[in-house]
Structures are given as structure tokens and as C-alpha cells.
Amino acid sequence: MKSKCIHHLARTARRPALLTRTSSVPITTTSSLRLYSTHPPNAKLNLPVDYSTTPLLSHTSQTALATPDLPAHVRNSTTQKMNLFQAINDALSTALASDESVLVFGEDVAFGGVFRCSMNLAESYGAERVFNTPLTEQGIMGFAIGAAAEGMRPVAEIQFADYVFPAFDQIVNEAAKMRYREGKTGRSAGGLTVRMPCGGVGHGALYHSQSPESLFTHIPGLRVIMPRSPLQAKGLLLAAIRSNDPCIFMEPKILYRAAAEQVPTEDYELPLSKAEILKPGEHVTMISYGQPLYNCMAAIERAEKDFGVSVELIDLRTIYPWDKECVLNSVRKTGRCIVVHESMVNAGVGAEVAAAIQEDEKTFVRLEAPVTRIAGWSIPTPLMFEKFNFPDVARIYDGVRRVMEY
């Protein structure tokens, strides 16, 4: 019976378009389905991001070297154009060269990794410091925590963020809690950095599309970081590797090759747990991090023209612990707040930001509208339909309209 059903379905799939008895419109066959999502020709909002012109990237050496929080000695240095994966590679190479206690390891790391972030590092620094591991996330994390406890600075790569869940016990109950458990002995996993590609890849991704950063934002003892640009990635990754806190470093994989900008060639760090105001504004505070910031900027440009408003855009950079002072000061000024992120809306970063705003007496009384969260739906990432799940320009644009009309 099962065999007959399969043959029947196969024959149906191969038939040309048929007409129904009640309509002259052909029934679409599987061969004519468009198995991806894109913008229609007349779209006004959800257009592809032009990374070559976006103001969120430093397209000249002058703008790169004028970046807030750059150390003084870097401001007079040279720059080089890099995309995100090249900047991460540069940061890893800098860390390995400057500190012999730094190790880099993970699945396929020795020959460059899936996204080429560790390319040529094994040849430059040797197989004892850059090496492949077995295909076991628990094993990678267990080894990394042990190495950190013994004074090393391990950089463990989880090949995709989706694969980190089997190692969650080690991250939560060992890496984050070791310093509290050990007490006066002083042992901790403070030199640990865990890198992982995350987020959607766009245009019909078939797998590896989760953004699980919200799961890490409820774990005291960890820092969770997500850069939006190559310049940020280098400075924040070096700061994470040298930090005495265990760090989760999440890399938006859609930006690996898409985002390119001028990056200082010097060794530099950017401060952790400090937000950056990308665009000042007066009427609405918009908070995000990573890839969604590009959609936020596109939505803001259109909303400001259509609604006559002024929107302040904040990049959290470190999403746990996040910069409450920067956010609260901005919301006290504007009276309205929108939080945008790819991960699920429930128990996400937006929920934590909204709760912190309403708990702060000085900020709560300044609100002119409820805090709005624009995020992924409370469902597993729907594979090739991820474009309909993650916040797009239209949803963010509509969020600005709603908070202004409240």
C-alpha cells in the first residue's frame, strides 16, 4: 500500500499544470514552486542591504580610526579593508602571537574551519596550539574548561551555534559557575572564549539558522558578545580572549563575507559590556545588535522621512551583561523604546530590556508608549522561510509607526 502511494505522488509531481473544475487558474506543480523568499520588484522597504554604502560600516580609513572607544595609539595607525571572517582571523592571529597561553581548537579548525576564520593559523603557530578536535561539542567544551582552569586562554570553536546544546551542561554548570564553586581556591574558567557562527544566512537557508543567544543571557558568570562589523569583531574578540570572564562570542554568519570595511591593523580592544550609540535621536530609542542593526538602519531612514520622527539607534555589542546606563539614559530622553533581535521573542533579550526599563523608576515614568519587542516568532526557525520569521525592515518600520501613534 505504501509503495502504491509513493508511486502515485511521484506521478502527480511530474504532471503538467492542471485546471480545476471551478477555475481556469492552473494548479501549480512542485516543479514550478519557488523554493526561496525574496523581495518583489516593487518593494519599498524590504530591499537587500547595500553593504558597500551603509553608514554602519567604515568605508574609509578616516571613519574607521574615528570609531569611539578605539585606544589612542590606534587612532594614528593604518587600516586595511577586511570582511568579518578576515577580521576574526586577524584577531585570532594577533592573540596567538602576543600570548603563548592562547589555544585555538574545534572541528575542522586546523585547515581553516567551515567559514575559513582560522585559515593559515595552524601553519603559523603549530599543531600544538591550533588543532582539530573530535566531533563532540561536550568534549570540546570539557577540554576548554579544563585548559582555562589550568591558566590557559582557550578559544573553542563550535562549528555552528545550533550544535552547542549538547554542551550546555558544561557551559552553565562548569564554565559559568566554577569561580563560585571553587571560592578561595581561585580556580575559574575565566580565560575561556567560545566562538560560534549564528543567525540566519538569508535567501532560503535549509539548515543552521538558529539565533540562540537569548539562552545564554540568563547565565550569571558569562559574557555574551555579538559584533555587527569587522572592526568591532576584531576589537571585541581580542577583548574577550583577554578577559578574565568566560565569554560566548557569537558571529553572524550572513556577515562573514557580506560586511567589509576598513579595520585598524594595530592590536586593539573594544570595551566589553559597553553599548555604542550609532545614531542619535529624540523621539524613539531603538536597541539591537548584530545583523538586525542593518535592517534597523534601513527602517529608520524610511520612517524618519514618512513620519517626521527622530530615532536613536543603539548597538548593545555585549548582550549580557548589557549596558543598562546607556539604554536607560536614552529612553528617559525619548520616552519610547523598540528592541529588535533575531532570536525568539519569548524570554529573549528584548524581554530583559523591557523588564529593566519598567523596573527603573526614573525611566518608567518617562515612557510615552509600551516597550515594543520585534523579534523572531516563538517557533523553531522555519528553514527556507526564515525571512518570514526574522525581523525585516517592514516589521521594524511598522513598530516605529505604532509607538509614535500610541
TrEMBL record:
<dbReference type="InterPro" id="IPR033248">
    <property type="entry name" value="Transketolase_C"/>
</dbReference>
<dbReference type="InterPro" id="IPR009014">
    <property type="entry name" value="Transketo_C/PFOR_II"/>
</dbReference>
<dbReference type="GO" id="GO:0007584">
    <property type="term" value="P:response to nutrient"/>
</dbReference>
<dbReference type="InterPro" id="IPR005475">
    <property type="entry name" value="Transketolase-like_Pyr-bd"/>
</dbReference>
<protein>
    <recommendedName>
        <fullName>3-methyl-2-oxobutanoate dehydrogenase (2-methylpropanoyl-transferring)</fullName>
        <ecNumber>1.2.4.4</ecNumber>
    </recommendedName>
</protein>
<keyword id="KW-0560">Oxidoreductase</keyword>
<feature type="domain" description="Transketolase-like pyrimidine-binding">
    <location>
        <begin position="82"/>
        <end position="258"/>
    </location>
</feature>
<dbReference type="Pfam" id="PF02780">
    <property type="entry name" value="Transketolase_C"/>
</dbReference>
<dbReference type="Pfam" id="PF02779">
    <property type="entry name" value="Transket_pyr"/>
</dbReference>
<dbReference type="GO" id="GO:0009083">
    <property type="term" value="P:branched-chain amino acid catabolic process"/>
</dbReference>
<dbReference type="GO" id="GO:0003863">
    <property type="term" value="F:branched-chain 2-oxo acid dehydrogenase activity"/>
</dbReference>
<dbReference type="GO" id="GO:0006091">
    <property type="term" value="P:generation of precursor metabolites and energy"/>
</dbReference>
<dbReference type="InterPro" id="IPR029061">
    <property type="entry name" value="THDP-binding"/>
</dbReference>
